[in-house]
Write a structure and sequence with these properties.
Length: about 800
């Protein structure tokens, strides 16, 4: 592939100064950690008679310190040699030389993913600045809803107005909803009357389109109600064709991408692998229909915000040095609904500004589920050589001859005639390819061929590389989606991610074990950080949130005395970690407030979704739990948006999320109060306890919003006095559990504990209930085991309290 000029298509640069600073900091911090380890280890070797602290809390705290240090160490991979890329799409060769691209869009549930939104994504992809005969857009509808198919036909009809309009006036915003909802910025030359006319006309057509979808939606609802079920339906594949020529000049030919609706077969009892399964089905269908060498993957809410993204990606795919091994070009996930304050860190800043550029400097970023241009070859058939046996291929890819043929052949044009008609034979084949049983006894089901993080990792272990292109300060984000901007959705999504990542961490593909011979150690470290962070944050953070404070309450010191030189080691590590984070936030151009928000949400996530996610993964490993995929809600709730914009936490979240927060807060508040009381009136030694006081105070100050939600706020988003649980089927379980706890409480012979201890204990019960609710309905026995452990933890505290008192 020849470039039209000798100028490079892209540049790749690092930042020497920042890298030098980061590496120096890493070394300094490591030395401090070495001192810490030395201090702790020597404590263990001390004569147990002179050691004032009991061994159990010490072991927990030391283990937590080690875990946090370890995950910090893994994260150094990101700062080691990050790179940033600039692309020059204008230097690409002529359009004739550009390769074809299949665009995959996945949707599943019109109730959570409004159809108009999905169609906007579709239209924005159709309107990409790329030769239309080289774009083929596939929409996978996992629910198989008639409304989606209907809307797609309407979208094609509207595209006859939208596409020419965008091309003629070189419109940058090619998502119609966004374009028409803007008041200013009707570029390019708003004064041009021709433009105004066209714009008005297109706008009218857009309104008409929405109206038709809405009306059709009602009819479809009726239809869908009858025989249809989202988890049980036959496959349906349709190449969307010309609707009618109404409203158009006779021989007006508008070049349009091929548009295909795909709904794979679903049978209730057949496991369908969620999005990964949908993508696999798309891979097969598109192989027999168009077989484009490149694929763009999009979530249904991720619209193309910069029409040049395809050309940007080609700048890297055309680079003769990178191209042979380059599997995919990843663009960041950016969101259109992020507020100034962003209390939940919905933009996931650290991933897209630190981790991805960091990995890009090693061997390439993680496959992020959406917004990437990938080589088809890298996804399924890189190992195909001409002499491979047909039988072998069928064992891997299933019985379809048509599909296997596609592995060896380059399609110059889609297997569709000019009127958009496909032969019946091919449609039948496509149906076979999307049937539930097609994957049986093949590699499709076993090797999760399309499962973002793992797919990317395995690919890179096979020698493929990837590249990351973030928008510069002067260019637009390439894609924009809907983020999770309320606590419940955020943490629910967090459970799924945590569970998926830890899944990999405890599998045979665990990055540190599977990676090193196949990919560099640094690169494996980066991958390991990503897969382990939910697990390696939740354990230490639970420990730090409870053990030091409970020890403070009981007058047990865990950290060196203020006068001890080792105290400064601890202080240094604490401050060094915080200031490094602050530095990172500032160099990525965010305000200090962002740092506070990230610290807070890090703690909140660790004790909630990371905990549940890790638990989920571990239980799945032992087959005690089934995989699940709760689709993220993309419907905006005004009340929620209002709270998010005002920067107020929305605690109307499931009890399983709110309970742990309340627990941790109560424990720490009680401990600081009790600890200070002890020091002032009971002759405690403040010098020994200062570390713990500081830690608890830090937790309380950072999570002040929880206290505010508990006692100060009066709006709907506050934490209700009774965090009631809405799930009916868990009610009985919960009731039974409460009974048991209460009867045990009644029969216990302990003397009434202090009010502080009651508060602590009762919040542990609430926590136990929360865990019970999450894991209850599916596995009563195991849940009981877990809850009993937690409840016993509570009794342990009681006993502990009594012992130390006497
Ligand atoms: O059974 C399913 C479930 C989901 N989806 C689609 O998968 C996409 C992602 O689902 P969403 O609920 O939006 O999840 P998010 O957490 O927002 O998505 C992030 O996390 C996913 C992995 O958990 C990645 O696959 C996504 O690309 C990434 O954006 C959506 O288009 C869905 O329609 C399906 O096609 N079939
Ligand atoms: Mn999403």
């Amino acid at each position: 592939m020849a470039s039209s000029s000798s100028l490079p298509l892209h540049l790749c640069h690092g930042n020497k100064l920042t890298t030098f600073f980061n590496r120096s900091h890493a070394i300094l911090h490591s030395i401090a950690i070495a001192f810490l380890i030395h201090y702790r280890v020597s404590l263990f070797f001390q004569d147990h008679k002179t050691r004032t602290t009991p061994i159990v809390p010490l072991v927990f705290v030391f283990a937590s310190e080690l875990l946090l240090s370890f995950i910090w160490f893994l994260g150094r991979a990101y700062i080691w040699s990050p790179v940033y890329r600039t692309v020059f799409p204008e230097r690409l060769p002529n359009d004739e030389e550009l390769p074809a691209i299949d665009v995959f869009i996945c949707t599943t549930d019109p109730n959570k993913e409004p159809t108009i939104g999905v169609m906007n994504t579709l239209l924005s992809a159709m309107a990409l600045d790329y030769p239309p005969d080289k774009l083929r857009v596939y929409l996978s509808d996992d629910g198989g809803y008639a409304i989606t198919l209907h809307a797609m036909r309407e979208a094609r009809r509207f595209a006859r107005f939208w596409l020419p309009f965008c091309r003629r006036f070189d419109i940058e915003t090619r998502c119609p909803e966004v374009y028409f909802s803007r008041t200013e910025d009707y570029r390019p030359n708003s004064k041009n009357s021709d433009f105004i006319d066209e714009m008005q006309k297109t706008k009218e057509q857009y309104e008409l389109f929405k109206e038709r979808v809405r009306r059709g939606g009602e009819e479809c609802k009726f239809k869908d109600k009858g025989v249809h079920s989202a988890s049980n339906h036959p496959s349906c594949i349709e190449v969307i064709q010309e609707y009618s020529k109404e409203g158009l000049v006779e021989d007006q030919i508008i070049e349009m991408p091929l548009l295909v609706y795909v709904s794979r077969e679903k049978i209730t009892c057949h496991f369908h692998h969620f999005k990964a399964g949908a993508v696999n089905a798309l891979l097969r269908v598109s192989a027999v229909l168009s077989n484009s060498p490149y694929i763009l993957m999009l979530d249904c809410d991720m619209y193309c915000n910069d029409p040049t993204s395809a050309r940007q990606a080609m700048c890297l795919h055309f680079d003769p040095q990178m191209s042979p091994s380059l599997a995919f070009v990843q663009f960041p996930q950016a969101f259109h609904d992020i507020s100034q304050n962003d209390i939940y860190d919905s933009e996931v800043r650290s991933a897209y500004t630190i981790a991805w550029p960091g990995l890009d400097g090693l061997k390439g970023p993680v496959l992020s589920g959406t917004n990437f241009y990938i080589k088809r070859e890298a996804l399924c058939c890189h190992s195909i050589k001409k002499d491979i046996e047909l039988r072998e291929l069928k064992d891997s890819f299933g019985p379809s001859n048509e599909f296997i043929e596609s592995l060896r052949r380059d399609y110059k044009k889609p297997n569709v005639n000019d009127d958009g008609e496909v032969s019946n034979m091919l449609l039948e084949e496509a149906k076979v390819l999307t049937s539930c049983s097609y994957e049986d006894h093949t590699k499709w089901g076993k090797e999760a061929i399309a499962e973002d993080y793992l797919t990317g990792f395995v690919m890179q272990c096979k020698g493929w590389t990837s590249a990351y292109v973030a928008p510069s300060s002067t260019t637009r984000p390439q894609f924009l989606g809907t983020s999770t901007t309320n606590l419940n959705d955020l943490l629910t999504q967090g459970i799924r991610w945590g569970s998926g990542l830890v899944d990999v961490a405890i599998s045979r593909h665990s990055p540190l074990l599977y990676g090193p011979p196949r990919t560099s150690f640094l690169h494996s470290m980066g991958y390991a950080e990503l897969s382990l962070f939910p697990l390696l944050y939740c354990i230490p953070l639970w420990c730090f949130a409870t053990i030091p404070s409970l020890c403070l309450l009981n007058g047990i010191p865990l950290y060196p005395e203020v006068s001890d030189p080792y105290f400064s080691v601890f202080l240094f590590i604490f401050l060094s970690a915080l200031s490094k984070h602050l530095h990172e936030v500032l160099i990525t151009g965010r305000p200090i407030r962002k740092w506070i928000n990230e610290q807070r949400i890090w703690m909140i996530k660790s004790v909630t979704c990371h905990t549940y996610g890790s638990l989920d993964a571990i239980l799945k490993k032992f087959r005690l739990r089934e995989a699940s995929f709760l689709t993220t809600n993309k419907v905006a709730d005004d009340e929620q948006i209002k709270l998010y914009r005002e920067g107020k936490f929305d605690f109307r979240a499931s009890a399983i999320f709110v309970e742990p927060l309340v627990t941790v807060m109560l424990v720490n508040l009680a401990s600081v109060a009790g600890g200070v009381f002890r020091m002032m009136f009971m002759g405690g030694d403040w010098k020994k306890m200062l570390g713990q006081v500081l830690l608890s105070v830090y937790i309380i100050v950072m999570n002040y919003v929880v206290i505010e939600g508990m006692v100060m706020r009066k709006d709907k988003g506050r934490i209700p006095l009774h965090v009631s649980v809405g799930e009916d089927n868990t009610k009985d379980m919960e009731h039974e559990f409460c009974e048991r706890v209460q009867s045990r409480e009644r029969s216990s012979d302990t003397t009434p504990p202090t009010t502080v201890a009651v508060a602590t204990a009762s919040s542990f019960i609430r926590l136990a209930k929360a865990i019970n609710v999450r894991f209850g309905p599916k596995m009563p026995l195991k849940t009981m085991a877990i809850t009993t452990i937690v409840a016993n933890f509570r009794s342990t505290i009681f006993i502990y309290q009594e012992r130390t008192a006497s």
